[in-house]
Amino acid sequence: MSEQDENKLIAQRRVKLDAIRSERQAFPNGFARRHIAAELHSLCDGKSQAELEELALETAIAGRIVRMRGPFVVIKDASGQMQLYMNNKFFSEDLARELKSLDLGDIIGVKGEVFKTGKDELSVRVADFKLLTKSLRPLPDKYRGFTDTEARYRRRYVDLIVNEESRTVFETRSRIIRFIRKYFEELGFMEVETPMMQIIPGGATARPFVTHHNALDQDMYLRVAPELFLKRLIVGGFEKVFELNRNFRNEGLSTRHNPEFTMLEFYQAYARYQDLMDLTEDLFRKISQEVLDSTTVNYQGSSYDLAKPFARKTLIEAIQEYCDAKEQEFESKDSVIKLAKNLDVHFDEAWGKGKIVMEVFEQKVEAKLDQPTFITEYPLEVSPLARLNEDNPEVTDRFELIIGGRELANGFSELNDPEDQVNRFKAQVVQKESGDKEAMHFDNDYVTALEYGMPPTAGEGIGIDRLIMLFTDSPSIKDVLLFPHMRPRHDGD
Q1: Angstrom distance (rounded) from CA 171 to CA 144
Q2: pTM for the predicted model, two decimal places
Q3: Are 17 and 134 in contact (CB under 8 A)?
Q4: What is the side-by-side strand order in the sheet with 398-403?
Q5: How far apart are the C-alpha atoms of 387 and 419, rounded to whole Å?
Q6: Would you list the DSSP string of 285-342?
Q7: DSSP strand E in 171-259: where?
Q8: What is the C-alpha to C-alpha distance for residues 179 and 485, in angstroms, rounded to an integer?
Q9: Contact status, residue 76 vs residue 63, Cβ threshold 8 Å
Q10: d(Cα 149, Cα 219) in Å, to the nearest integer?
Q11: 280 secondary structure, DSSP code
Q12: What confidence tens digit (pLDDT) does each residue in 143-181 have?
């Protein structure tokens, strides 16, 4: 529909609204529903017309008009659709006139008896109705639909009205989050809430958003992760905690990044990172069974059998496998630089050996890891909060779960040595002073907490949005966020 045609229709509908305003309350409140569409279908779909006549079920139902064909009108509520039979021969003069003024998108409440048409379609024979909300803007054309991707993201409310697939994605998202909460509560974890605004941002290497607290006259940061506060709770004696909430990172927009996103973080005292890998496998498997009724997930052309054990390999092993690298190429910084150059990896030679190794993995390997794979033993330099590996001091007891070439989870045995943590924080400060805007701040209070003693602990974060993408076969993170952040429109766009 052209903009000119749309404006014409809007003008016509405004005229209708003005006429209604001159006679009565244009947006009445108080219509009492007796049923929703799904209830009527559940009660009556299996009955014959003769049985419905005997039942004589009177209903009051409301919804948005999504289809009009002669006397047959279809309305839609949150549970589904219901066909109405609205014959103006059985209406008063006022109702017959109001019937003619109805448009697609209007929200109406109707009363009548449930019956089945000659084609065995469950319907409501409307005896009375009321316009509850006049829709001033026309819905998208039913044949062409609402398919423009950017328009769907910017006007999610329209997308949800006309695209059942979008509604299903967000209903599935809600089911998954509800299941995750139940899963952790049944394992004895306690759900907690930690500050969204922090004086010192920490818990991840990411660039934070900055705001200002007027009463305190100090800058504050939207949190990049809840990690350091959750581990303070472990110090305080809560041995199993989880938080399902928003994080904020001042990063770019992409199919897998949004400046605000939902994370699950959980911490368990007296556990190791291997325990959390086992837990994560079990969690993903049970989510699949709950949502898909199957352990097989199909995502963007790939099939994942979550009933099978997930692959486990070290980061170095993965680089060796996918880049045909030899063990001796990781022995020194010079050999790693040579490897990176041979692989055409972009990096800064001022970086340490571990960070360059990480760049090789992220640029040349991660996207190739399609089947579920735990990558372990991440370099110390890129893991400032993880426990050192006892056999190899260059790496940490850390893992990431990669599926479909994307990181979905990150976990590790936690660093609980306060003196080691001080040195790690100092190294991060040096990186920040050298221009790394994602490096961590020095959090003295967190060090103080560790000095009181944190038991051996393992923790993990799972990106909920990416998890939802996997289980709904959604190619972009924007498909699973009700209101994703979008680049501003410019004049003429």
Answers
A1: 24
A2: 0.92
A3: yes
A4: 190-191, 240-248, 260-269, 457-463, 406-413, 398-403, 373-376, 311-314
A5: 12
A6: HHHHHHHHSSSEEEETTEEEETTSPPEEEEHHHHHHHHH---GGGGSSHHHHHHHHHH
A7: 190-191, 197-198, 210-213, 218-222, 240-248
A8: 27
A9: yes
A10: 37
A11: H
A12: 566 888 999 999 999 999 999 999 999 999 999 999 999
Closest by CA to 399, choosing from 274, 261, 238, 222, is: 274
At position 125, the amino acid (one-letter code) is: R
- CA–CA distance, 474 with 155 (Å, rounded to integer): 18
- C-alpha distances (whole Å) from 192 to each of 132, 202, 264, 457, 460 are 41, 18, 11, 17, 15
- Quote the pLDDT of residue 1: 66
CA 262 to chain centre: 6
3-state secondary structure (DSSP) of residue 159: helix
The pair of three-digit structure tokens given for residue 301, joined into one six-digit string: 């052309």
Tell me the per-residue pLDDT of 80-131, one tens digit each, with 9 for 90 and over. Answer: 999 999 998 889 999 999 999 999 999 999 999 999 999 999 999 999 999 9
- 85's tokens: 């039979």
CA distance 420 to 426: 10
Radius of gyration of the chain (CA): 29
H or E stretch at 113: strand 107-116
Structure confidence by residue, pLDDT tens digits, 337-381: 999 999 999 999 999 999 999 999 999 999 999 999 999 999 999
Alpha carbon of residue 279 to chain centroid: 21
Q: Which DSSP helix (H) or strand (E) runs through 444?
A: helix 444-452
Which single residue is written with the structure tokens 């009955």? 47
- Residue at 130: amino acid letter: K
